[in-house]
Structure formats: C-alpha cells, structure tokens
Records
---
Amino acid sequence: MRIAIAALAGALLAALTAVSTIHFENAAQKDPVLKPLYNYGSR
Amino acid sequence: MSERAKHGAAALTGLVLGLLALGPGLARGFLLSYDMVFVPRQPLNALTFGLTGTLPRHVPSDAFAALLSTVLPGDLVQKAVLLLIFVLGCAGAAALVPTPRLLPRLAAGICYVWNPYVAERLVLGHWALLLGYASLPWAVAAAGRLATRQAVRALVPAAIGGFAAMAVAGLPTIAVAGFAPGRRRRAVAGIALGVVGLCLPWLVTGWLRPSGVPGAPSAVDAFAPRADTPFGTLGSLLLTGGVWNAEVVPKGYGSGLLVLCWALVVIASLAAFAGRMRRDRPDWAAGLVVSAAVGFLIAAFGVVGAPALKRLIEFWSGFAVIRDGQQYTAPLVLVIAIGLGLAADVLLRLVRPREEGKADWTTGLVGFVVAVLPLVLMPGLADGAAGRLRPVGYPDGWDAARKIVHADRVPGDVLVLPWATYRGYPWNGGRTSLDALPRYLDRRVVTRDAVVVGSTTVPAEDPVARGLDPAVASGGPLVPALKAAGVRYVALDAETGAGSAQRARLAGAETVLDTPDLVLYRIPDPARTSEPKAPLIPAALSWIVMVSLIVWSFVTPGTSVTRHIPRTPRRGRYP
C-alpha cells in the first residue's frame, strides 16, 4: 500500500512537471511597459 | 534530527529557493524592477529620512540600504536583502507547523516563499514589504506566546521595511497577541506599543508633513486587486495572487491545468489547517485566522466596495492605505502555507503512522512531492522571475553626473526630465523601473511623482513637483521658472537625443554633461528657496525611540518560534 501511494505520488509529480514545463514554455509573458514609456503598469 | 537542525534545514531551503528565484540576477549589477531601486552608494540625506515634502514611503528602508551601502557595494546589499527574505520567510513558516516531521515543515516554508504573492510583489519591487512578509511568521509565533521582546525583535525586518511591511506584519502581530490564550492585558499592550514604536520614523514624518496626506480616490480603481486566474478577482486573491499590475504576474501562472491544481492545493491546505486547528490550536492560531480573514476582506473591499472606499478616502485621506489591498492577504498566505505543511503531515501519517518508527523512502518521496508542489505549479518565479530580474550597471554618465553635482557648492535642487517618475531605460532592457536619480544624487531631486496606470493618472504627492507642474507641463521655456524655484540642475535621463524637445526648452542653462544616457544642465544663480518639511526634532526623537526599542529587544538572549512544537521522541526518524 505504501509503495502504491509513493508510486502514485511520484507519477503525479512527473506528470505535473511535464505539464508545467510545456505550459511554461508556451506561455506568453506580458512584457514590461515599453510604450508608453513612463507607465507604472497596466491592468 | 534536532530542532536546531530542522531550523537550519528550513533556512537552507529558503536560501536555495532565493538562489533559484534570483538566478542570473545574482550576478554583479542592480535589479531595477518597478519600485525596486538600489544604487551603488545611496546618500544619507533629508530624502532618506522623509524630511522633504514627499510621503515617507521609503522610510526607514532607504536609510537601511544607505547605511549598508557604506560598507558593501549597493548591488550586494540588494541581493543580500532579497535572499534574506527567502531565508527568513521559509524558516519562520516552517517552524510554525506543529509537527516533529521535517518534510511537512519544509512544505510550509516552501509554500510561504514560493507563491504568486511573493512572485508578484518581488517583480513589482516591493522588497521592503516583503521584509515584513518574511518577519510575519516569527512575529506571529512570539505574539502567540505574548513575548513582547521577542515580538519586537521578530518585527525588526518589518520595521526596516517601513509602512507597508509593518502593515502586513505589525497589525497581525497585535491581533495574534490580542487573541492569545490568557490575554494578559499588559503583554498585549506592550506588543501594541512596540509595534507603534517601530512605526514612528515614518508615522511621525508622514503625519507632520506640512502638505498632508493626499488621498486621490481616483487611484482606487487603478490599485484595486484584479483577476489573474479564471476564478475571478476574489478567487485570485484566495489563491494568493491578484495584484493590481497585470505586468508582474509570473510567466505561465493563471491558466490551464496548473492553476486548477494550485486551487486544489490551496483548498486542501485550508481544509487541513481548519481540521487541525479544531482539535489542536496553537496559541497564535485564533489571531492569525482573524488577521487572514480581515486581510482578505480589506483586499476584497477594493473590488466589491470600490465606491464606498472612494467615499471613505474623500472623508479621510488616510484610508488610501488600503487602496492596494492585495498586500494585506499576507496572513492568509501564511495560513495556506501552514495548511500545506499540515496536509503533508496527514499524508505522511497515512503512509507510515508515527508509531512505526523510522522513515523510509516511500514517506520521503511523498513528503518531497507535496513540498515541491508550489515550485512545480508556479515555475515562473525561477530564473530571475523568468527574465524579469536581470542585473544591470548604471551608465558611466550617471557616475559623472553624480560627481559634478557633488562637487558643486551652490545649493539648489535637481529637476528630472522627462516629467514622469517611471522609466523604461534602454540600458535596463526597457524594463519598467522607478527613476533612480533621487537615490543616486546627493541633492533634493524633483520628479513628477504622479503615476500612470493604464489610462488613470494618480496625482502627484510631492508639493514641489505639484508647484512646478504648470511650468514644466506648459511646453514653454523652463529656465526662468526653474531658477525662481531654486533648481540648480536639470537632468535628462531619457529622450536625450539631439532633437529632444526638452533640450530646446533649456535655453539659458549650461550643458555640463552630455552622454547618450544622461544629459545634465546647470542653471546659474538659482533662487534660494526652502521647502516646507516635517519638523526635525520629532523626526529625530522617533528614530531614537525606534532604535532604542530594537536595542532593548535584543537585550535578552535567545529567541525561538518553536516552543509550541511538541517534543520529539528520541527514537525514530520522521521525514
């Protein structure tokens, strides 16, 4: 039972890491404001 | 493993997380991101102590940075402060989990320093606020024991951070003491007085500032929390994000399967916290829960009660401090972090009940998976917040300007053009940052401190900037008006090209430095003016009180956040 839970946890971590990596690589990042030059930020 | 070793492991974990978060940002150079400005050697002047007309938001954090930069290069001071936030926060949160097992504690510590709140505030440059955030678990533990000296000592990083830091750490500390078992009035009053005493440097200068505290109700919409997940603004706040600025949301956060998993983690953590606290409530629990609830309500108020908040600010401008309400969710983040630790503890007990003795690889693996969940679900904080924090050096022209201004014996202010306070310096990769000249030059530097958020302009607070605004904004010749206002230098640190419209307006001023990154004009014979400012004696007294309190808090040796942790049996190891 213990080994089954550990295996499940390991598999979950592997799956989440894979999904996270793919999602992160594909995510667009909102760049810091270049135009207009003097904005504090945007909503 | 001894308690001391467990604290050490948590602190080391915090350090590793800090190194991971800053990444390439650890190289020599300055991380200039939104409100975070460090300079090679910050002068200690009237601005540092809040004795100009500006609001003392940077008091006493700037004085701390300036003092440290006398013995260490400014960029190293910055990295040390940022790493300290991760170490303190991780170790403090880990120690609050009432379990002898190490991995659940580490899960809490990791969650506390690796979440959307920390990522967003770090990119937004709120290092001073994060000092308070990092001291919160320590202060909560001390306040739960009604230990006045330890509470004051735990709040020292928050006191250094100033207003925002004390708001997120000091107020919950009072609440925790107020709800602690026993409720010894004297101890609670002592802690409250200690909190007030640590606030005095900015409280006094802010209160006695001749031009008062501007409210600007229009800024409520600009700084209200916003949804950075599909769960709406309130849901985003519950998931520890929801900061007002869309540009600082960690890369990859807020969409897809990962945010759903993060929501499940938060819900499970809250459930674990509630379940455990029902049967075994540490001294700090009630006050922390109240603080978390009130903090969440304050944050939510800017969203669901914006018109009411505007009216409150019109009634008394002091209510403006709750405009950026998301910062008050810090106690909620601590609850969630402790909850994750407790959830991990429950899971480990399911895998291997305590009675069975030594840990094995199965419990280690399960504990590790839970502990690293925040990292896996939010990788956008790593690698210098995915490229947002990169070290840069100030251009040579800046150093030359500093020397010129420093060598000049004629008094007078420095006016910075273009007439705005945030920059996207090309040498900083176009990243938004606060204009660094006010901290770089050892003179009173005047910038237009009105801030622009989207299409909203929050009015300027500096009375000198407000007085000069009509002349500077008019587009006409500047020198006569600046001369009359006591301005000695005009610094152009953007749009410095030969065709710049600003240059044409400075006929009559002498060009003393002309570089691609900074142009410096000198105005001959500026008028002698004096600026209304907070009185010196009360300000000095406030510093004496604060420093005395800090010294007093260190008089008794020994501090611990772990007295509430049950004794660990000598036999058996726990992951």
---
Amino acid sequence: MNSIKKHDLATLGACAVLFAIVQTLLFVDFIGPFWELNIILILINVILSVSLNLINGYTGQFSIGHAGFLAVGAYTGAIITVKLGLPFELALVVGTLSSALLGFLIGLPTLRLNGDYLAIATLGLGEIIRICILNIEYVGGASGLMGIPRFTTFAWAFWITIFVIFVIKNFKNSAPGRCCLAIRENEIAAETMGIDTTKYKVMAFTIGAGFAGTAGVLFAHYFYIAHPASFTFMRSFDILTMVVLGGLGSMTGAITGAVLLTAISAALAEYPEWRMVIYSLTLIILMINRPQGLFGSKELSLKMFGLGGSHNGRATESK
Amino acid sequence: MLKVDQIDVFYGAIHAVKGLSIEVAKGEIVTLVGSNGAGKSTTLRTISGLMKPKSGTIVFEDNNIAGMAAHKIVASGLCQVPEGRHVFANMTVLENLEMGAYLRSDKDGIAKDMEDVFKKFPRLLERKEQVSGTLSGGEQQMLAMGRALMSKPKLLLLDEPSMGLAPLLVKEIFHIVQEINEAGTTVLLVEQNANMALSIADKAYVLETGKIVLSGTAQELASSEAVKKAYLGG
C-alpha cells in the first residue's frame, strides 16, 4: 500500500513538472495560440476518452453516446455562468453532477441491454439530447448559446484532467472497479458470484457520464460557445476512436489515443483537403496491424520494460 | 432445502418449462437428466435467478426466491456453476477464486477454503498464476467449480459439468462432485450424461420437453427400462 502511494506521489510530481514547463512555455509565448488551443482540446479529449474507457473498456458496456453527456455538461455549465451569473467553479460542479444524474437515469433502463442493442440505445440517446437542445430557445436553439466567458485556462484543464485520471485509476483498483472488470470478463459468471451487475454497470456509466459533463463545461468555457453541431454522433465516434485506438481497457491507451488523434488532427489543419484522408489512413493501418489498439488492455508502466516491481505484485500481496 | 413448485418459464413465446416441480433435501445429490432442449438448464437458471419464472414458487430454506435478483440468491447460499464454464478469462486462476469469495469478508475462512479448493483440485494450484482463459476445458470446469465453492454455498447447482470433456476427466469431475457432497454441500446436478449422473445421485428427475416424466431414487431410474432405452443406450 505504501509503495502505491509513493508511486502516486512520484507521478503527481512528474505532472507538476510537466505543468510548470508547459505553463512557462505558454507564458513566454513559445507556444502560440493555435497550439495552446490544441493543448486544451487534447486535455478535454483525454478526459472524454478516459471516462468513456471506464464504461467501454473496463466495464465492457459498449456506449457510443458520449457526446450527449458532453453537451449536457457544456450547456448546464454555460447556463450557470452566462444565464445565472454564478462562478465557474460552481458550473464545473453542477455540469458534472447533472451529466452524472442523466447518466444514472438513462443507465438504469438501457444497461439491461447488451452489445449492439446498448450501442444503438446510447447512440439514440446522444442524438435525443442534441435534438432537445436544438429546440430549446432558452439556450439559443440552433444558433447555440453564445457569449460564454473564457474561464477555462490551461491550469484548470490540466489539473482537472489529472484529477479525472486519478479518480478513474483508483476506481479501477477498488472493489467496485474489480466488479466492473468481472462484468466485462463474464457477466453471467459475475452474476453467479453474487455481484449486482446492474448496480456496477450503472455506477461506471454514471461516473463516466459525469466526467464527460466536466469536459463539456471546460469545452464551452474555452470556445465561447456551446453549439448543438459540436455534439453530433460524429463527436461520440471521435471519442470512441481514441479509446479503441489506444486499446479498450487501458488507461494509458485512452490517454495516448486522445493525445495522438487530437495532435494529428491539429497538425494536419494546414492541409484541410488531405486531413481526413491521412486521418482515416492512420486508423485503417493501425487497426489492421494492431486490432487490439496500441496498448491492448495493458497499461504503460515501468514494468512493461522489465523495470521495477515484481510482475505479480497484486497477486503476491493478497497471499 | 429447495422446493420448486409448479414453475413455468418462457423464452419469449416459447414455453420452455411447464409446471415443473422438484425437491432437494439437505445433503443429497439430486440430478435432472434429459436430452437436449428438455429444459434442464432453463430450470437451473431459473432457480439461480438468471431467469425469471412466469408463475410458480421456488422456496429455498423457507424463503421464496422465485424472481429474486441473482446476486441476492447467491447471498442466501445458493451458487450456480453455469454451463460452458464461464471463467473470467483474463484473470488468473487465483483472481478467479478470489472473485468467488466476493460476498465474504471472513479472511481466515476464505484462506482455509482456498486451501481446500487447491487440495481438491491440485491442478489449479499448479496453475495459480496462469491466466484462466489459457486453461484446458477440464481445468476451466474445475476452476468454475472451485470458484463456486469459494462462496461457501449450501446448495451447489452444477450445469452440465461434463460438457466437452474427455471421459477420464468426466470421471474425475464426478468423483469431486461426490467429495464436495460428502463434505456437506447439497448438490443439484443437471446432466446429459445420464449414466454418470445416476451413478452418483441419490434422487433423479427425468425431463422431457419441459415436464418431469419420471422421478425416483437414482437406482430405480437407472434400472428402469424406459430410462435405459431413452438415455442410457439400451
């Protein structure tokens, strides 16, 4: 246990150093506005892919409606700051909670479905949310909710991302997290072992939806606007692609997937006519050569390179 | 201990189990035999809560568990080893067994039962750290049984433990079922291999198209002409 905490502290230290470096580079304008925007976008996408990985990767429930929760977070956050004039911090909390609540309410009935059926149900859900927003005049309808102040800074985005990663990582290693893994491995067996499968599926779905909401608040408060067109099912697929590319069930995979795809997409911004071609080709080549994603379900760690710690750390611990 | 009374189970419009009643007394091995599609597995899945009966009652130790959620039924001391083994393929043997003790918190008891399981299935001990998806069929069956035992069930439901296994292994598995029973666990066994099942059971029911057509002690059924002809190959 002690070694785990030490390890976490070391990681946190590394994050702080990384943060200091990027923040300094931003401060001295070494990183221009274009890449600053993309760094924020990368961080938002990391939150999205890591939270979707909790649902799709760890719990094995194929959800493709993540953009819907992103939208709920974005709009709720914007209502708090723009319409009600309340602080950004509150927007973050309320945006997260309302998304989580929606995830909970939707999860209860839909998570009884399996595989393709759940995918279709969540896809539909994402669209329903978008269409609803499109028709609510209060939040601007089809023209979107404009005039959102830019409260999202690199610091906010960075530390929230780190927070989300830590929460989900710890959830995975907790008892409920183990239950989620068991459900992914074999739902029938999990049920016959006495695991309340619905409860843990809904739990994972709720947490994942909540963090997608957080990402939504950050998103809306960086780009000045919340617009229904940003939350189409293509957005859901983008997130899903990041997770699958990195490797379903791998946290480091989800992070790498998000960083890689967002960066590729940004780097190709100068060649708009080639952008989608190269983007798609990258995906096709990768999926042919590594169908399990970059990392499979493994985590990137020192152990991977044969450094530090016995391979069966957890198993030997429990003896 | 277990009394199933007049249950009806449907798959959509298909009436798979029709007014079925069985009884299992404490300490017994009871077997349900019958051919493919007779409703054996459906019955078992209904008892363990993976399926819900449309009507009828299932009383386990004075509680009606018909229609209760599976995880609650497990907590009351009834554990099923599902057909086709269903191990957690990407977890190690040890982790699988630990999952079996999911509902328990008595560390000493768990450690002791773990030892017992390894004593019953020495092969699992050899492969403790192996990822269970890479085990052979027989080993996976042993693991599924060991995992169920880790929940310390009062009543163990076994669904086709012999499925897809070599004859020698089948013998070994049935021998272990007997051992488990002698150690005090009541067993309800569903089998297509009627010969083997009848040889270790106390009581047996023969199922045909969702109905009990014959019942009696295992010896009676094993010597009954009708059963011999239909299930025991002459």
---
Amino acid sequence: MPGTLDQMLESNLDSVDSAENLCVDAAKQIGLDEDACMDLGLAVREAMVNAVAHGNKYDAAKQVRFVLETRADSVRIIITDHGSGFDLNRVPDPTEGANLMRGSGRGLLLIQTFVDEFTVKKAVAGGAEVTLVKYAISD
Amino acid sequence: MSATITTRQVGDVTVVDAAGKITLGEGSALLRDQVRNLLGAGNRKILINLGDVNYIDSSGIGELVSSFTTVTGQNGQLKLLNLTKRVHDLLQITKLYTVFEIHDDEAKAVRSFS
C-alpha cells in the first residue's frame, strides 16, 4: 500500500477528476471512512481547480505536477502549478462581510476544513505549491 | 453520476430538481443556465430541490449564491428544498445556511412563496 505517485497532468477538468479519484482510492486504502474519503476528495478537487483554472488558466502548454504519497497512516498530496502563486494570509475570508455573497472564493476554506494539514509555498519555478495531508486517525 | 437539472411547475412556483454532481464543469453551469432561462421566461418564484444532489463543490455553492442574488435582484424569490447532509454541512461551513430560506417539505415550501 505505501508508495508515491508522481504525475504531470494537463490543465483541464479531466485532470481534476483523475486526481480526486486517485486520492479517494488512497484514502480508502488507509482505512478512512466514507465521509472522510469524500472530505479529502473535495479538498483535492478544490486544490486542483485552483491549479488548473487560477494558476495555469487552462493553458494547454502548462501542466500541473501531482504527487500522491500514501503511507500506512496518512495520505499526502502535493500540487504544483505554473501560475504566479498566492499568499494564503492575503486571501479574503469568504464568510465575512460582502464576501459572503460572492459567487466564488470558497475553495481554500473548504480545503482547510477538510484536511489535517494544508500549506502553501512558492514553487521553485514560481507557481504555487500546495500540500494537503489527511491522517488515518484525525483528532 | 453527472448532473441533471429538470423543472416542473407547482402553482406559480417553479421547482428545479437538481441531481448528481453540482461541480465546476458539470452541474454548476447547468444550474446557472436553468435559473437564467427561468428568469428570462418571467418565472420569479424558484424552489431548488437539492434532495438528489450527492456532491457539490465550491463552484456549485457559488452558483447557488449567484443564482440567489440574481433572482432577488430581479424582485424574485429563490429558496432551497431537501438539503442532503453533505450540502447542509457545506452551507454551515461557508456560513451560507442562514442566507437561504431552506425547507424540507415541498408543499410547505411552495406555500411559503408570497
């Protein structure tokens, strides 16, 4: 079961589905229940949409690096795009004020809600590198 | 399961039955188009039935918000019916639960429209 998958994915929604399905399968393998699997799947979907749509802007010339590390007690996902990156601390809170009624901007909130660890850093090539971790036993 | 969106008329209320996945590239655009079409046809009382929606992402949630603001901006009313636990939880997390008028009984929901 433990292992690492390292793929370069096209910047399209098929890649989003593929990444989500791979992570849900990995979550099942480490014993997460159905709800937790769906939580992780949604978080990965949101992170992949950010990379494909906001980072790479669906540019066919740009790919998303998708790394899935499955351990006995955790699943770690690293997603890297070729956009301009973003500062998590400067992203508007979608639950406050006028942001509440915006039609977008909730993806990062859902990611942070549904994984145990979430970090964002600038990739070496300049884009965003996000890491999501889900443990088999959550607090 | 991909998304399906169908409509039916109950009195002067249009019930939009959504099913499947309401996500970017699937149900989200279908829902947007359907609501826009209803408004274009003069329907201003819209009840979205989410009872068979088994999956929704931030795009789908955003589309519910956009539809709500569009309909209310045209002096209409948009309400939600039959939230699954998943959709209920996501509306709680995003603090949108109190924004929408939410029902779990269709007949009562239809009667609630002024």
